């Protein structure tokens, strides 16, 4: 093996505010007439992938795009509800690019790269213009101008939204741009087609291997650059708010081919989800955080109190968030609210048949403001809740519980969004870049579109024009080897013929991650879980049962391939959690907390990105670090007391 | 029957089984004890888990977000696309909508343009091709004018959003006695016709999308309005009237 | 020409022509009904009215050819569209439930349309063709009509035709507005009521004629 590549973040020097402009100027350009000679493979059609594929095609590159769903429009981004941030300052409430930058760095608990975040805040403004020009029907005021709201505890109103379907509308905008390029013949979209490996040649990503999910056929696709826009890995926990096909496969395959994985332990757990109702539970549904503006969170004071909520007198209720955080109360940030819910349930004070939920009570709000007002604010959410649970939140408190929602970790990328595997760019939730250890509400959509519409279309030239790329054809040994490896993997899965279903194994893995690498983590728990996850993986490869064949549509086989990667990935996630001996953002180590039970960061020893290098089957991962320096934002401790 | 407490439903399920696009299919009958709190797809998950433990292949069915927005889930349940509840996708349907002892028939969406790929999974790519035929605004990524430079009356923005809420699931086609894709196509034509950004391409959009819709082999619209009743997003057939108008206008104005 | 061909090749274009021809035929039906009302004043009045039409000479010819064309086009398009839809779903559902928006009228458009076609053929051969051929049986047209529509068989056929017409119009009118894009959310309900009401009125109007004749004892002398 070559010496491991250094973690060169390629962050431009100079004043923060000019860095992106200067950097773009310094990047090489490719003559429009020459662009069609380059073929770019874009994996994923979420906000990041669809926007990148469309933009690159508009610029003249030849683009091939892939997704798992039957249409690019169905990528998981479609499910985002709340909104997208942009520093437009349309409300004149003092917002600015700098403030958005500042809030994002602080919200990320000082574990993100300043320059990346600043660029994100800068281009956020263009995103809204672009989306409106595409016909995205954002909410408007009576005067016809765009409406904004304040979201996730932000002190300015900078969130643009389209009812409760912002992700859908933004994705349909990017999708329509993509469809336009398809009809122009510049993009080929392959649906129901899963990337199963990256092909490298001379240490550069030169293509991918895919499996056609309808026919089971393996295919080779060469490329001059490969873009991974494959989303997050929340489904390592089995139960999450993510769509069922969300996976780590693409990222993990790339990781095994040389891309470092950064901060895998940073996972975000969202406090207001509909709780689990039974063993058959297949996913969790998020409800907007805005509910905490009016709802009061409580549990009974005594353990195991089985009375109906209405029968529990005021004096026997514990409004624990209001009690512990008098100034923020029910509006503490996501991680704090989630952790507290877990701890009251751990104490045995959780409610509902499973004991794994807490009340979110609107009785006071209804009494204070009237039912009509509450209806106007939340009726769609209340209806959704009732549809799922069969309980009417107007007459009894909602029950909520935290759920895994977003993953800040991802493949390590430099300022150009290029991974440590040259020629492989990573966009959207799949990279680790902009949110540090905690993402603010309405910032993921912004990041996905920033990466796809603005960043990579500019930076990809550094690779395309900067490196000498030989013509490559798919008969090359590198393709043959990668295809054979993938084929063997799937054949193996089909031939184990054990006794446990893929879903059972996935659930077991999810439980393990949730128990030991979820909201609160301990050294002991992680060490134990690390042993168990290895056993589970071994059991998977010897005892899983995948029926059917590999030559036709076989959903269990698809799932098995993804779970196999989650099994390997989870081990790394736990290792990362174990080695990060501090608490920050979504990563809470019980050993590292203040006397009041709050997260205790260790800036002296852990103000860095941990990027893990895969070194082969029987080797341990190697941990590399990229130091983070904060020149523009002061490192402070978050406090919500 | 009796003997069952409120907590479980004894169900007889007739589920469509078809091994591939070119093979004939038929119903397979299974019985199941389900919990009323399960979602319909979780109920099918349980069927599939049981089957696999017995060494039999699970039923293939499309799903992804399981919260009613991606448009991936489908199914015709007792003759109704997305089942009995109005404005509810199959993934949001819960078993408490059924009764103990029910017999449930589960079929794929049926239309020539939506061939069955396997069991309950169909090919809906024609819908993408309809969008490719004009369901976009031709604006390259770049630096368009400021988003607020062009105010849009709230009423129009709201109507556009009503139409844009389409999740592209194809239930309108499945419900239409003529297997027409008018509601799907009209929703996109309407969304863009209602906004100034869509104006420059009104003519080519209406012509292109309608022609593509026909080329895909969908039926024609006889204004039954079954599509609107089946639409999980409650999209109105007013959009079809608007598309008809757009199409007529385009035909007169086109060269 | 190209644009027109393009228009007629799409389902929406053909539906538009279907709606326009349908509305024109609807106009004819109203005129026809008003003409028939002359029977309330006796067969003479009716014959006078018929004579006035005859006196139009070539204009009547043109109108009749026009009507026939409208009819043929309407029917032809309906059949071609119907075929398109049958082909669009070769395998039907095992179980098919109504979603609750379609109506008996909307589901039976083809049948009521075909029934109207049959009725029309009978109707035209009975009167119009005979008249043109100079058949003495229809020399007193008013009387011939009265006898025909009050005879048991004639009454059944007539009433059958009228019910088919009523059902057809019940769906067709608002459907035509929808197809022509003339429905607007604000008026949509009104359009629906008006079209249902006018379908009902026309049905009653036609049905009233033989009933009136029978009740007033002017029916077929048998
Ligand atoms: C319920 C919910 C609500 C949210 N609400 C908000 C919000 O209000 N605001 C906000 O900013 N963020 C929100 N988020 C987060 C945000 O939606 C996501 O982070 C973001 O959409 C991710 O976009 P993406 O393009 O990176 O990936 P995705 O949208 O996840 O797309 C991944 C794509 O990759 C494809 N893919 C994956 N693996 C493979 C493979 N191996 N081969 C081929 N294709 C593959 C998939 O098919 C898909 O097309 C929400 C998330 C959830 C779960
Ligand atoms: S699975 Fe996404 S809408 Fe049903």
Structure description:
The complex is a heterotrimer of chains A (641), B (255) and C (222). Chain A is α/β, with parallel strands linked by helices and 641 residues long. Chain A is 37% helix and 15% strand. Chain A has 3 domains: 321 residues, FAD/NAD(P)-binding domain; 129 residues, Succinate dehydrogenase/fumarate reductase flavoprotein, catalytic domain (Flavocytochrome C3, Chain A, domain 1, Alpha-Beta Complex); 122 residues, Fumarate reductase/succinate dehydrogenase flavoprotein-like, C-terminal domain (Methane Monooxygenase Hydroxylase, Chain G, domain 1). Chain A has a 5-stranded parallel β-sheet with strand order 5-2-1-9-17, with helices on both faces. In chain A, strands 11-15-14-12-13 form a 5-stranded antiparallel β-sheet. A 4-stranded antiparallel β-sheet of chain A has the order 16-10-20-21. The longest helix of chain A has 25 residues. The relative contact order of chain A is 0.16. Chain B has 255 residues and is of the alpha+beta class. Chain B folds into 2 domains: 110 residues, Beta-grasp domain (Ubiquitin-like (UB roll)), CATH 3.10.20.30; 117 residues, Orthogonal Bundle (Fumarate Reductase Iron-sulfur Protein, Chain B, domain 2). Chain C has one domain: 3 helical TM bundles of succinate and fumarate reductases (Up-down Bundle). Chain C is globular. The termini of chain C are far apart. In chain C, 28% of the residues are buried. Chains B and C meet through β4, α6, α7 and α8 of B and α1, α2, α4 and α8 of C. FE2/S2 (inorganic) cluster binds next to loops of chain B.
């Amino acid at each position: 093996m070559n010496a491991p590549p250094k973690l060169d973040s390629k962050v431009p020097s100079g004043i923060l505010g000019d860095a992106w402009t200067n950097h773009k100027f310094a990047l090489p350009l490719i003559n429009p007439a020459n662009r069609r000679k380059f073929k770019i493979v874009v994996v994923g059609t979420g906000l990041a992938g669809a926007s990148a594929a469309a933009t690159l095609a508009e610029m003249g590159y030849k683009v091939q795009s892939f997704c798992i769903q039957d249409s690019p429009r169905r990528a998981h981004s479609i499910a985002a509800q709340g909104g997208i941030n942009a520093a437009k300052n349309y409300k004149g409430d003092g917002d600015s690019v700098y403030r958005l930058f500042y809030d994002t760095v602080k919200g990320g608990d000082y574990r993100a790269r300043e320059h990346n975040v600043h660029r994100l805040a800068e281009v956020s403004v263009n995103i809204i213009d672009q989306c409106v020009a595409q016909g995205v029907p954002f909410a408007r005021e009576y005067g016809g101008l765009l409406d904004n709201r304040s979201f996730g505890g932000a002190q300015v109103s900078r969130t643009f939204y389209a009812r409760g379907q912002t992700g859908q509308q933004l994705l349909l905008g990017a999708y329509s741009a993509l469809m336009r390029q398809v009809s122009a013949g510049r993009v080929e979209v392959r649906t129901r087609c899963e990337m199963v490996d990256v092909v490298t040649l001379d240490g550069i990503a030169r293509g991918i291997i895919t499996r056609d999910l309808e026919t089971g056929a393996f295919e080779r696709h060469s490329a001059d650059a490969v873009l991974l826009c494959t989303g997050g890995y929340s489904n390592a926990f089995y139960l999450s708010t993510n769509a069922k096909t969300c996976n780590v496969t693409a990222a993990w395959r790339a990781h095994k081919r040389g891309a470092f994985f950064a901060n895998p332990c940073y996972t975000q757990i969202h406090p207001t989800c509909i709780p689990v109702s039974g063993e058959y539970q297949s996913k969790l549904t998020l409800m907007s955080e805005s509910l905490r503006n009016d709802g009061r969170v409580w549990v009974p004071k005594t353990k195991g109190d089985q009375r109906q909520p209405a029968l529990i007198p005021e004096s026997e209720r514990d409004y624990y968030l209001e009690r512990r955080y008098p100034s923020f109360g029910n509006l503490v940030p996501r991680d704090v609210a989630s952790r507290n819910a877990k701890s009251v349930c751990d104490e045995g004070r959780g409610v509902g048949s499973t004991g794994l939920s807490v009340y979110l009570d609107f009785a006071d709000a209804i009494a204070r403001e009237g039912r009509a007002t509450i209806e106007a604010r939340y009726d769609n959410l209340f209806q959704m809740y009732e549809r799922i649970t069969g309980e009417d939140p107007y007459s009894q408190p909602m029950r909520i519980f935290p759920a895994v929602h977003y993953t800040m970790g991802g493949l390590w990328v430099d300022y150009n969004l290029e991974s440590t595997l040259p020629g492989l760019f990573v966009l959207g939730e799949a990279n680790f870049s902009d949110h540090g250890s905690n993402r603010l509400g309405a910032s993921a959509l912004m990041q996905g579109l920033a990466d796809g519409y603005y960043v990579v279309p500019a930076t990809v030239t550094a690779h395309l024009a900067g490196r000498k790329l030989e013509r490559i054809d798919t008969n090359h040994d590198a393709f043959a080897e990668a295809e054979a490896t993938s084929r063997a993997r799937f054949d193996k899965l089909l031939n184990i013929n054990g006794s446990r279903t893929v879903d059972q194994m996935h659930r077991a893995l999810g439980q393990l991650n949730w128990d030991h690498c979820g909201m609160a983590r301990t050294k002991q728990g992680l060490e134990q879980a690390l042993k168990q996850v290895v056993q589970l993986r071994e059991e998977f490869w010897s005892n899983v049962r995948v029926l059917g064949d590999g030559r036709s549509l076989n959903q269990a086989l698809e799932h098995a391939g993804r779970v196999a990667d989650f099994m390997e990935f989870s081990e790394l996630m736990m290792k990362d959690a174990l080695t990060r001996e501090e608490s920050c953002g979504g990563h809470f180590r019980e050993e590292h907390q203040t006397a009041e039970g709050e997260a205790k960061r260790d800036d002296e020893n852990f103000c860095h990105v941990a990027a893990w290098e895969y070194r082969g089957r029987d080797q341990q991962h190697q941990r590399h670090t990229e130091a983070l320096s904060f020149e523009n934002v002061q490192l402070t401790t978050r406090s919500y007391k | 029957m009796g003997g069952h407490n409120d907590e479980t439903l004894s169900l007889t399920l007739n589920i469509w089984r078809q091994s591939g696009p070119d093979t004939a299919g038929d119903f397979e009958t299974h019985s199941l004890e389900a919990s009323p709190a399960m979602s319909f797809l979780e109920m099918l998950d349980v069927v599939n888990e049981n089957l696999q433990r017995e060494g039999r292949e699970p039923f293939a069915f499309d799903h992804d977000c399981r919260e009613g927005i991606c448009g991936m889930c489908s199914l015709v349940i007792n003759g109704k696309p997305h089942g009995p509840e109005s404005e509810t996708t199959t993934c949001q349907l819960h078993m408490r909508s059924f009764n103990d002892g029910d017999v449930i028939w589960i079929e794929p969406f049926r239309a020539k343009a939506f061939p069955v790929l396997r069991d309950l999974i169909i090919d809906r790519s024609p819908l993408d091709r309809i969008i490719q035929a004009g369901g976009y605004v031709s604006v390259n990524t770049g630096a368009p004018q400021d988003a607020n430079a062009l105010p849009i009356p709230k009423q129009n923005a709201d109507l556009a959003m009503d139409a844009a809420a389409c999740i592209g699931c194809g239930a309108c086609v499945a419900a239409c006695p003529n297997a027409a894709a008018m509601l799907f196509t009209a929703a996109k034509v309407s969304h863009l016709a209602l906004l100034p950004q869509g104006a420059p391409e009104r003519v080519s959009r209406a012509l292109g999308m309608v022609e593509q819709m026909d080329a895909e082999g969908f039926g024609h619209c006889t204004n039954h309005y079954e599509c609107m009743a089946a639409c999980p997003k409650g999209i109105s057939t007013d959009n079809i009237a608007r598309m008809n108008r757009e199409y007529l206008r385009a035909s007169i104005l086109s060269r | 020409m190209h644009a027109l061909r393009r228009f007629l090749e799409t389902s929406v274009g053909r539906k538009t022509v279907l709606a326009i021809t349908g509305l024109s035929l609807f106009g004819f039906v109203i005129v026809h009904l008003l003409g028939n009302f002359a029977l309330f004043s006796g067969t003479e009045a009716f014959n006078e009215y018929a004579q006035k039409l005859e006196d139009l000479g070539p204009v009547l010819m043109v109108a009749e050819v026009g009507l026939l064309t409208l009819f043929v086009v309407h029917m032809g398009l309906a059949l071609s569209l119907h075929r398109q839809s049958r082909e669009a779903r070769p395998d039907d559902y095992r179980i098919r439930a109504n979603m609750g928006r379609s109506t008996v009228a909307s589901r039976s458009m083809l049948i009521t349309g075909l029934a109207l076609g049959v009725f029309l053929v009978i109707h035209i051969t009975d009167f119009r063709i005979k008249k043109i051929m100079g058949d003495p049986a229809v020399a007193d047209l008013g009387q011939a009509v009265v006898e025909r529509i009050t005879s048991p068989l004639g009454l059944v056929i007539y009433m059958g035709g009228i019910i088919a017409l009523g059902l057809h119009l019940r769906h067709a009118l608002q459907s035509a507005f929808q197809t022509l894009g003339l429905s607007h959310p604000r008026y949509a309900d009104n359009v629906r009521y008006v079209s249902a009401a006018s379908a009902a009125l026309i049905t009653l109007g036609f049905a009233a004629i033989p009933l009136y004749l029978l009740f007033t004892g002017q029916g077929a002398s048998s």
